[in-house]
Each structure stands twice: as C-alpha cells, then as structure tokens.
Amino acid sequence: MILFILLLLVVYLVYKIRELDTKNLDYFEVRGVKNIKRTSFVLGLLKIFRQKVSMVDIVNDIYNQHPNEKIIGYWDVTQPSIMIKDPDLVKVIAVKEFDHFQDHKSVITEEIDVLFGNSLISLKGQKWRDMRSTLSPAFTGSKMRLMSDLVVEICEQMVEFLKEEAKAKGPQTHEMKDLFSRLANDVIATSAFGVKVDSLKNRENEFYESAKELSNFLSPKKTFKMILYRMFPRLMKLFKVQVNGPRETAFLRTLVTESMKIREQKNIVRPDMINLLMEAKKGKLTHAEKSDKDSAGFATVEESNVGLKTVRREWSDNEILAQCFLFLLAGFETTSSVLSFTAYEIAVNPDVQEKLFEEIKEIAEELQGKKLSYDILQKMKYMDMVISESMRKWPAGAIAERICNKEFKLEYDKGRFFDMPVDLNIWIPIIGFHRDPKFFPNPEKFDPERFSDENKSSINPNAYIPFGAGPRNCIGSRFALMELKATFFYLILNFTLEVTEKTQIPLQLAKTFANLQAEKGIHLKLRPRL
Which residues of the chain have pLDDT under 70? Predict the structure, then answer.
C-alpha cells in the first residue's frame, strides 16, 4: 500500500511541478511582490526527505532573499503564499487584524487523526476560541504556583540519579536531548497526568516509550508522512493515512480516561493538568484572577481578550484527550530541545555558567534547605537572561503560520498594497527575526546581556517571539519557563557542564522536517561540584 501511494505521489508531483510552469506564472509579479523561484519550496521538501537540508534552512533561505523587502512571495507547492519580513507587519497580522488571520494552516483533521485534529494547535474558528478560553485559566500564575512543587520534585529526582551515577562511575557524559527528554517526560507525567515515573532509572517504562513515539517527528516514517500531508493533503485524506500509531493512541486514551474515572469515583483532587481538564470538561474553569504580567520572565506571553472570555460548554472525551496529547508533545519534545540547546550554550560559555552559578548559589543559601518555589524562580534575573537568550538563538519553533480567513488589503510598505485572498498561507519567520543582525547585533553570539534591565527595552517585541505572536501564542509559556528555570537551578547548583571530544562545536542542525534539532546530539560531561 505504501509503495502504491508513493508511486501515485511521484506521478502527482511531476504533474504539479509541470503545472507550476504554466499556471499563475505572474501571480506575484502583477502584484508587485518580490518572490522566490517557483519550484524551490517543493524541491526543498524533497531535499528534507533525502536529509540534505532542514526546514530551518528553507525558512532562512526564503527570509534572506530580497533583504530590502517587507514581504516576500513563495509557492507552497501550487499555492501562493507570503512570508512577513517586517516585525511591524507581524503586529498587524497577529494582533491588530487578528480576526482576519486567526487560524493555523492545518491539513490534519479529527477524521484523519483524533489527537492532532482536535488539539488546540489545529482547531479553527469559533471552536478554537472556545477551547482557548476554556483552557487559559489552567495556565495562570496561581496554577503554576500550585504545580511548581511537582516540577521541583522531578528536578530533585534527576539530581539524585546523576549524583549516584557519578559516585559509582565518576563524572559521566550524557547526550543532553536524551537526558532532558527523560526529565521532561517525568515532569509531564506527574504534572499533567498524575503518574509518577522515573525514566532515568526505569529507562523503558511504558509512559516514556509511548510519549517518545507520539513525539518522534525525527523518524523517517513520520517525517515522510508530514511532508506528504504538506504537499498532498487531499490524497493523504483519501487514503486515511494516520500520523500516530494505534498502540500509543490507545495507551494515552486509557491513561486519561481511567485517571478521570478513578478521580471522579474517589473524589481525588490533585494540582495537575488532568484535574484542570476535568474542570474544563465540565465548564467549571473560570477567569477568577487577573493576569500577572511578566510573572514568568521576559519571554512570557500574555493572554489576550480572546482567551479571557467565559465559555459555557462541555467538551467530549476526544477533545480533552487531544489537549493531553498536545501537552505531552510540547512537554516532551519542545521543552527537551530548548533545555538541550541551553545546556550547550552554558557549557561552551564558561563565563555565563559561572555567573549563573553564583546567582543560583546565592538563592540556594537564602532558601536554607527549603524547596524552590515559583515565585523564587522569578527573582533570578540572570537566569531569565540566559533562558531568554537561548530561546532567541534556538527558538522552539522556526516559524509561526497563519491563514487569511477574510479578504484583507495589506499595506506592507508606504503606498504599496497586497490584496490577501481567503486561504492565503502566511509565514512569520521566528528564526529569521531572531538571527537577523538588524534586530539582534552579532546574532550568532550567545549574549545574555541583550536581556539585561539596561538593554532589553531596546528589543523590538515583535521581532522576539519565541512563544509566537498575538492571541494564538503558546498557551503554556509560564509552565515552560518554570520548568526550564527549575531544571537549570538544580543542574547548575550541583554540576558543572563541560564540553567533551564528542561535543560538536559549532553546533549544526539536523536535516529534518521537525523544528531545531542538533545534528549529532549534544554531548556534555556532568562533573559534580564539590
């Protein structure tokens, strides 16, 4: 079946590439918009499948062409699309005119994949608005304070394991993505699902293995599927090609439904995501507290009015299950990637590591053996600078996507307009802005001082968007920042991060369809501090 589908796709692709030579030849030219070579995007996707380039390479290639233009046209297979290259236009698209651009491009519907299709990232229109409003009370500062003890417990568990290992075998070298995937798995297991696991000691536990498979977008099989969904959505829908495997989907469904059932029967209340989703399912989560601005750090995104409206509707089990999948995906894959890149930068910049250690040591002395809390984390200014700079240089997502859902006339330069039709695909190049010397001088340098009190006011907020922009930003920014900071508090307090002969310097990115991943992993030695 797969070979048959592949043969059809090859024939279809040849047809489409030829069609590009004859259809809408002058689409961008007659509109006065600079654009890139018509077949470059399609060929780029094929190169990703052959592991010749990464998705980041494609984004950067488009971004760096026609440097003086504020928008640039490209062809998403046969669909005309544009990339926004001016941060001020990002504000127009993502904030001021949000009603015209509220949806993501999503070709995977709930009929194809119940997890992807129903997740917050895939929902559209009013259903997305209702789900966002339903979930947003679960991610406020007060909820994070309740959940911080769960995160801290897992960080302490990690340190205990690493210390025991070093005592028995001496300082060990770890591949940081693997280490942090296990940490992130245990964090999401306890804080979202109410399950206690130790994936460093019990390396093949069912929760970790299922989470790894559900989140593994680096596998050739999933990369292939995602490329085909991107290029041939109708054909993939016709053949009902699933993204996620049935075994992992069934495991997640059983885990969530059984947990909810037991809690209902025994009236168990625990400060985790399952409890919050149970409240959301019944429409009982409310916006009772005011937004606590910047409570988690410089990179925090605030909830918009869209997410602050009260919604009275009940959600199905599948809709709740899909949000659990999204939390799992973000908590396992995205968080572990950011942790890995941050660890790399701390290791290759000893001056940064020493300054961070001094701040952490001072806080630890003030705690006098008490547990680290959410509010204490917010006092650590240099920690926030380090995390903010890491998410600038190595953002979790290379792009943010939007779809034009109402016709809009965009003035993209003085006296220059572009009529945006319904279904026009729009790319907001996060990695392009973050690595552009116009916005961040000497962008390849890891420099936390960019985010000092003296310097951060000079940063264009529309050019620094590690959690996305506008009402459709990442709902879990507070939780992510809490986990990042807590992890490095305990890791740097107890260990020195050192480069080894296996550490790739400078770091190169893997040639995949997924977001930023290190080509050869990130190998660092963890030396216990005396």
Answer: 1-25, 38-51, 77, 107, 217-224, 226-227, 230-231, 233, 283-295, 307-308, 513-514
Instruction: Note the residue count of the chain.
Output: 530
User: What sections of 283-403 are H helices per DSSP?
Assistant: 317-329, 335-348, 350-367, 374-377, 381-393
For residue 412 the two structure tokens come to: 């993209």
pLDDT in tens, 430-477: 999 999 999 999 999 999 999 999 999 999 999 999 999 999 999 999
Q: What does R_g of the chain's alpha carbons equal in angstroms? A: 23
Which residues does residue 525 pair with via DSSP β-bridges, in sequence order?
173, 498
| Helix-then-strand count for the chain, H and E | 20, 9
Q: How far apart are CA 217 and CA 517, in angstroms?
A: 11
Give the SS3 label for residue 84: strand
Is the omega angle on the peptide bond into residue 506 within 30 degrees of 0, that is, cis? Answer: yes
DSSP letter for each residue of 402-444 = EE--S-EEEEEETTEEEEE-TT-EEEE-HHHHHT-TTTSSSTT
Distance CA 99, CA 47 (A): 35
With a CB cutoff of 8 Å and minimum separation 6, the contacts of 5 are 235, 239, 241
Question: Do the Cβ atoms of 504 and 40 come closer than 8 Å?
Answer: no
C-alpha distances (whole Å) from 5 to each of 42, 236, 241, 264, 353 are 18, 9, 10, 45, 51
240 vs 230: CA distance, rounded Å: 14
- 387 CB burial (10 A radius; 0-12, 13-18, 19+): buried
| C-alpha distance from residue 264 to each of 194, 201, 257, 260, 324 (Å) | 14, 32, 11, 6, 18
From 186, 373, 374, 194, select the one nearest 269 (Cα to Cα).
194
Left if phi > 0, otherwise alpha if psi is -120 to 50, otherwise beta: which for 518?
Answer: beta
Give me the pLDDT at residue 24, please.
63
Report the relative pairing of strands 79-84 and 425-428 from DSSP bridges.
parallel
Helix (H, G, I), strand (E, B) or coil at 528: strand
* Dist CA 377 CA 384 (whole Å): 9
For the stretch 206-233, pLDDT in tens is 889 888 887 776 566 666 676 677 667 6
**Which residue's entry shows tokens 């907020």?**
461
DSSP helix, strand, coil percent of the chain (3-state; round to 5): 55, 10, 35
Q: Residue 6: count other Cβ atoms within 10 Å of its Cβ.
A: 12
